[in-house]
Amino acid sequence: MRAERLRTGLKGWGGVGAMAFACALAVLAALLLPMVPWHGTGGGGGADDDGHGVAHGSQARAAQECTDPEKQTLAPSGDDGPTIDEIRAREGEKRKLVVGVDQNSYRWGYRDPNSGGDAELEGFDIDLAHRIAKDILGDEDAVQFKAIPTDQRIPAIQDGRVDMVVRTMTINCDRLQDVAFSAPYFRTGQQVLAPKSSKITGYNGTLAGKEICTAAGSTALSTLEQDQKDGRLAEGVDLRTTVPNQLDCLVRLQLGEVDAVVTDGALAASQAAQDPTVELKGDAFTTEYYGVAMKKDADDLVRRVNRVLEEWRADRAGGWQHSYEEWLSETMDEAAKSLPPTPQYLRTS
Q1: Strand-strand pairing, 143-147 and 97-101
Q2: HEC string of 45-79?
Q3: Phi/psi of residue 124, each to 5°?
Q4: HSE on the CB side for 66, CA within 13 Å?
Q5: Can you list the residues of the chain whose pLDDT is less than 50?
Q6: What whole-number distance in Å separates Cα of residue 28 and Cα of residue 282?
Q7: How many CA atoms lie within 13 A of 163 on its CB side?
Q8: With 0-12 CB in 10 A as exposed, 13-18 as middle and 19+ as buried, what is 80?
Q9: What torsion, rounded to 10 degrees, do the Cα atoms 344, 308, 164, 263 define?
Q10: In degrees, to the nearest 5, what angle opens at C-alpha 183 toward C-alphas 331 and 156?
Q11: What is the DSSP string of 262-289?
Q12: Where are the alpha helices (DSSP H) in the chain?
């Protein structure tokens, strides 16, 4: 019975009330984030002197013949191009990199409710966004963050609302039809999150007849739907509960409205750190990679971001490893400890 699943010993950010309050603040902040008049990312699809046009064609073909989506990206380059030129041409306070992010993912992109006042966005993804802004505009603070729901990440890129999305976004073949991705910057996989008291043990038969929450537009939802269609998901699993943002699933779980959550293990680990009454159940059952998403024709920006990622991985003082230790190391169990993925790029000739 659903009423029997209601748990009263809520912890984390102060239980359901605090979580609901945090969600309300997140929605309000999203509405108040300043808008920048903007007219797209420009061209970049034509051939140029260094062969970028050929590479773009290769990228399009690769997306259509996709087998290893994390490898379908362009080689790093520090050259400018039409997309970067348009970003730099913005004047005054509008001269910023516009980045779609999450503000509800603990340790990835979030506002610390304990900091008081106008809490700034912080986390692993936020560090990366600042790094990209520093490279392109010479100022790590020359970035405008826009809170984007999970199911609005691709539309926000296509509509020109953002230059890129840095938001725990999995690179996959379907998405490569709509956007371009950088090389991967984090490896993870889908996992089950459930109350510690639950008899669920992982992505197996113990999910039979259970109600699972996922974020709309997420890899978790598409994976579960495909597994259900193919008969690989436990019998009677209810997938009807979907939410705009992943944190909403944790709230549903805390309220006893669902039996489990399926999401990226990296996000699930952070949610378990917020609420010690829940835990990861079983091992990851997929392997996935996060990448920075951009418009399909923004070849110069993709190449530039890949160069930033190369430098971020190599920087031992303030790069990938530093951000990982600051934000994620404490939330990841030993089995999920991560290293920056080794990138592979499309051949351009």
Answers
A1: parallel
A2: CCCCCCCHHHHHHHHHHHHHCCCCHHHCCCCCCCC
A3: -60, -50
A4: 17
A5: 1-58, 61-63, 349
A6: 36
A7: 31
A8: middle
A9: 60
A10: 85
A11: EEEHHHHHHHHHH-TTEEEES--SS-EE
A12: 15-32, 52-64, 82-88, 124-137, 153-158, 173-176, 219-230, 246-254, 265-274, 299-314, 320-327
Please report how the helices 124-137 and 299-314 are oriented relative to each other, as an axis angle in degrees rounded to 10: 120
Q: If DSSP codes are grouped into helix, strand and coil, which group holds residue 317? A: coil
292: closest CA among 129, 108, 74?
129
What does the block give as tokens for 291? 């990448």
- What is the distance between the alpha carbons of residues 90 and 331, in angstroms, rounded to a whole number? 39
E strand map for 87-128: 97-101, 104-105, 109-111, 121-122
For residue range 152-197, what is the model confidence (pLDDT) as tens digits? 999 999 999 999 999 999 999 999 999 999 999 999 999 999 999 9
Contact assessment for residue 325 and residue 315, using Cβ atoms and an 8 Å cutoff? no
Q: For the whole model, what pTM was predicted?
A: 0.81
Q: For the chain, how far is it from start to end, CA to CA, in angstroms? A: 61
**Structure-token pair, residue 30:** 């999203």
The CA distances from residue 298 to 63, 133, 149, 218, in Å, are 15, 16, 22, 24
- What distance in Å separates the CA atoms of residue 9 and residue 153, rounded to the nearest whole number? 34
